[in-house]
Fold each of these.
Amino acid sequence: MLDTAIRHSAPNSAERSLERPKTHATGASKKAQCGQALERIIEASRHEFMAIGPAAARIDSIAARASLTRQSVYYYYKNKEEIFYDIVVREAHMMVDQFANLDMNSTTPEATIKELLLGLLDNANQAPILSVFVSDQVCFPGSDKRATAIFTNLMQQIAGRLQILLDRGAEQGTLRPGVDAARFLAAACMITSGAKHNRHALQITCGIDVDDEEGMGSWQVFAVDLLMRSIRAAD
């Protein structure tokens, strides 16, 4: 497992292994990372940040949601910013693991890109904090600048890998030439994971509930098909 911090990665270095950021947990929390109390703090904080954002979140509220004392939270973390940063690190690890396993060589570029797109909506459930960053960072006023840097560098690495696949597909004649990976990735995030955070508008407009497993599956198929049609040479 890679434990080095995510660094800026140019597109031509995209085939190197995706890199995982270091945790910012305190020494005490490192000794008890698998403990129930720490996991309750993380989960309670995730809900609190999703509900009102890091700026408005309070340690007292996080402690109450986790059914712990305020002192218990401070045993593991110095402040709420440190908690937010650790959540981003954890979710970044999930995304690194997912995208590092993409088959870049033995399958067609089209098949690999489709697999990547299918995983984006899954990330909205598994890594909700990062997926909101994808949709709109304004949702998290006051978020740690280091967390923003992790997200930015992670997306740059994924876009770099995606550009290789798009260019390879264009050379093979299966994908349209000249597709910008960063723009395509941004559009893909908005239409896939972004749908999870605009679920009310989606339900009103077309009657699809992405909180429901069947509804999410239906939207996932539609969204990925639409995105793939936009880059196929034949279309």
Note: Confidence is low (pLDDT under 50) at residues 1-17, 27-34.
Amino acid sequence: MSPYQEQKVAELKRLGWSEVGKRHLPGPGRTPAKHVYELSCLQGKLQVFVYPAELFYQTA
């Protein structure tokens, strides 16, 4: 987990988001493996994907 991901996942968890899972970020030569962390809000209407250097929100 990158430092950016650690910070953002911790912030979202403090705000009541729950971690759904993580996905491998595909691509050649990724060592160590990079992952995208998926979290959802309590109402389940919004998801956030925490990439190594950015956040991506989408409706569930």
Note: The mean pLDDT is 84.
Amino acid sequence: IEEMYEPFLIQQGFLNRTPRGRVVTPLAYEHFGIKTNKNNQQTSLF
């Protein structure tokens, strides 16, 4: 999967590779119609 799909998703702008791992981009959320937290703050667990 990593060799086949990851490069495509990165090229399309849906996925970023970071030191902490893979991160979904706002473009991917928009593509799937998922609302995101606009100020990029993590919501609380409780």
Note: The longest strand covers residues 15-18.
Amino acid sequence: MNESEALLIVERGPVPTTQIPLQSDQMTVGRSAGNDIVLADPEVSRRHIRIIRRGDGFAIEDIGSTNGTFVNGQRISHLTLLQDGDAIDLGDTVRLRFMALVQPAAEPPVDLTNNPTQMVAQPRQFDVEQVAPYDPVTPHDPPAIARPPYPPKYRPQTPPPAVDVAMAPPEFIVDEPPSRGRGLMIGCGLLVALLLVCAGTFLILDAYEQGRLLYCGPLSPFFEVLFGPLGFAPVCP
């Protein structure tokens, strides 16, 4: 079982204050049940982001989401290395906070005294083709969580309640809230019904005694102004 080196804390979304341990080399986050971490929110795509464990820490990439992925307010379009305390926004309604429990080991400095022409090696590319399954945490073997060597950059004013990582399920599923467009559809339906009632009333009055009740009543000046230029002149007794 892999030791948890980092956490995702849900600050805003369907399961606020939930702590999600990052234990696999690759984990996907999305709305559908096939992801390692499921966030049932309308702003979250079926497959939204992928989180990858690398030698220098954890990296995140957007995998074709509709509403985009933002790290500290900046939209990302390629693999991005996460730093302790980074804010990850999925659309406009879900925010995750990345917390590193174990800081990655720093690479030794390059000695250019004897080899002044030596170039610093570029960071290797990471293959993200295959997504590894999420390894759930069982109560029989809780992971040892190391404390960071220095205080994290982000410290909320009110710390989230402690969550037993050993009892955390592999998926966090919350029912999707009702659609925001339902109220708009109801209002449109009532408006259409009102227009049909008005149109039916107009047709009945128009057919009754050849429209005398409609065109020769109190509304006759209105119809003279409206239809007079078209040659409409009802015969009133």
Note: The two ends are 96 Å apart (CA to CA).
